[in-house]
Amino acid sequence: MSRKELVITGATGFVGARLVEEALARGYAVTALVRDPERVAARNVSHLRIEKWSIGDPLPVVGQADALLHLAAYIPADLSDARQAARCFEVNTNGALQVAIEAASQGLKRLVLFGSAQVYAPDPGAASETSATFPVHRASYYLASKLSAEICLLAFGRANAMPVTVLRLASVYGPGMQGTGMVPAFLRTLAGGRPLIIADGGQYSVDLVYVDDVVTLALRAVEKSVDGVFNAGSGRSCASLEAAQTVADVVGGNRALIGVEAAVTDAAARGFRALEVAKAAKHLDYRPRSFREGIEAWKTETGFAEFEDTQGQR
């Protein structure tokens, strides 16, 4: 039996690199489409092909692949800059649609688009796949371009008999992520034995999902040939204070190092909704980890080597 083949764009990104590793481990043949092939870790793997490619370039030959997983995207440095809107739509919407058009013309069997769960309109309750989407509260130009990509690809796939799966990702964390954002900051500070001050009364809340759960969900969508929109989150929100306390416990830090500033804004409104994951659980056997389980898995795998410089200051 021949190997199943996957094409992965954005393969040097945080989630993309992890997806390549897991797909290879499961025996897939992988074509990684990347802007800079030098950034792909050297591997002596016969079933990995690396192609230099950027959104807007002609798509290489992919028609024999079982699926194309599209992660490549443009994220502006300043998410509030309206002048970046045109570039966001050019790359994230028009570019993704062009990928789908070229892939379909080659006879590709399936496309998986990695979207964002931050497109949901703010609301106290958890968001299901049918909840209202209205991203005007932050990163509106980027998020609108991601949401419009979903609409365009789902419509194109339906019209051209090419199944499209959309995964709306919550806030992803885990091994290999860049050293920015809430979770890396908490790990770096608390593993280094330094005080951590949390703003907004520790109320800022977000759905935190472990990277391997997202990767597993994506590969399961390919294996089970399921299309449509699926939330990829943990199923619950985690407040910043709770996240910090969990990190402290796992790294062996002292919770007394955690201080909380008084809330000066409506922190809950500035966070993001929890995601309902019942649909993914039903159709894709999705069983995401809790935040503590994810942090413990990260520690088991790497020992938080990414933060070893700060750990040495303890």
From TrEMBL:
Its EC number is 5.1.3.2. It is an enzyme of class 5 (isomerase). GO terms for molecular function: UDP-glucose 4-epimerase activity. Keywords: Isomerase, Plasmid. Coiled coil: none annotated. Pfam families: Epimerase. Gene3D superfamilies: NAD(P)-binding Rossmann-like Domain. InterPro entries: Epimerase_deHydtase, Lipid_A_modif_metabolic_enz, NAD(P)-bd_dom_sf. This is Nucleoside-diphosphate-sugar epimerase. It comes from Sinorhizobium americanum.
